[in-house]
Specification:
mainly alpha, 9 helices, binds zinc ion
Length: 183
């Protein structure tokens, strides 16, 4: 969806505050054992996000209407402020949080969602950087930029992951970029 500049960057205002509130909820007055479980749950949420990011991009944004049509606009105009409105992602996170809170203790649900949201924020930051920022040649971000550029320009059926290439490697959709081949 085409967004205003403020709408596009709203993720970076909302999610750090929300993640901080959830982490506080998870760790407030926690014993050492509960804090260890909470940190583990945050790490688990972060790891699970990588799979969600891959699955959403590959099987939803490239296949399911109306998301496919909206994502096509991003492929055609990669530098424009086209993305997921913050109200939509926040609504999905609220649904996930409330669903988790039904079967898990409150601190655990908060920690898991804090991890998922942190993954989403990292994805949003990396995706913004690869399209809108100059990045140092040879850096990790530069490689992410080349990987994503290949997805945009040469072959939209590869390099679905943006923030972490693990799932492309696992599912056989990773394609080399120019600097990979030069190595
Ligand atoms: Zn992109
Ligand atoms: Zn795509």
């Amino acid at each position: 969806m085409r967004l205003s500049k403020w709408g596009y960057y709203a993720d970076f205002a909302l999610y750090p505050v929300w993640i901080g509130a959830l982490a506080t909820r998870a760790l407030w007055h926690a014993s050492i054992a509960v804090a260890a479980i909470a940190f583990g749950a945050i790490a688990l949420g972060l790891a699970v996000w990588g799979g969600i990011e891959y699955a959403l991009h590959r099987w939803v944004l490239h296949r399911v209407e109306p998301f496919r049509r909206l994502h096509e606009r991003h492929h055609a105009h990669p530098a424009d402020f086209i993305g997921t409105p913050v109200w939509f992602s926040a609504m999905l996170f609220l649904i996930v949080w409330q669903s988790l809170a039904r079967w898990a203790p409150g601190f655990l649900a908060a920690a898991l969602v804090a991890g998922l949201m942190t993954g989403y924020l990292v994805y949003a930051a990396v995706h913004d950087a690869v399209h809108h920022r100059r990045v140092r040649a040879g850096s990790w971000l530069y490689r992410a930029k080349l990987r994503h550029a290949r997805h945009h320009q040469a072959d939209a059926r590869c390099n679905y992951a943006v923030s972490c290439s693990l799932w492309d490697r696992l599912l056989g959709t990773e394609r080399a970029t120019a600097i990979d081949r030069d190595r």
